[in-house]
Amino acid sequence: MTIYGAEVVLLIVLLSYSGIPCLAKVYTVGDSSGWSLGVDYKTWTSDKTFKVGDTLSFNYGSSHTVSEVSSSDYDGCSAGNAIASYTSGPTNIALNTTGTHYFICGVASHCSGGMKVSVSVSGGGGGGSGSGSSAPSGTTKPTPTPPTGTTTPASSAAFSPAVPLVFGLVLFIFKLVVS
Ligand SMILES: *[C@@H]1O[C@H](CO)[C@@H](O)[C@H](O)[C@H]1NC(C)=O
Ligand SMILES: [Cu+2]
To answer: So which residues are the signal peptide here (predicted)?
Structure first.
């Protein structure tokens, strides 16, 4: 059975291409410490870059809650006017919009005790065809041009690389079987 060099190269190219798209990341808040007292969340966020489409995963038990709050409520540790509240972990919160998102624990004195985290969310990679003016210079990447002029929704951007990949795989297997 002959291995077709061209097909192997094609497959490798397609495989590497499929890995390129800026996949949304899931960040476990506090890593192994989770969402609890005694964790310095400023340190936790300091080496991370959050993008639209990423997810914060809060791991906690019944002794804590998560509330997304305004900037002033974050400063004042007030969960009374929360944008959203969650009371049973784990809670996954998608970062859908740019800007700073503020999260606190709503249990009395926990926020002032350190259970508060703010994350600055920048524009997601890919899919943003409308507002490219403020893209950081270091993150430019070659963007495959769709055959049609229509804009591609972000949700289908993750799917499209699978189409040539599957096609390449089918072609590869077909050639092996035929040879
Ligand atoms: C983010 O968007 C997804 C998909 O539209 C939605 O299901 C989810 O509720 C949104 N999350 C927040 C926190 O707005
Ligand atoms: Cu708490």
So the answer is: 1-24
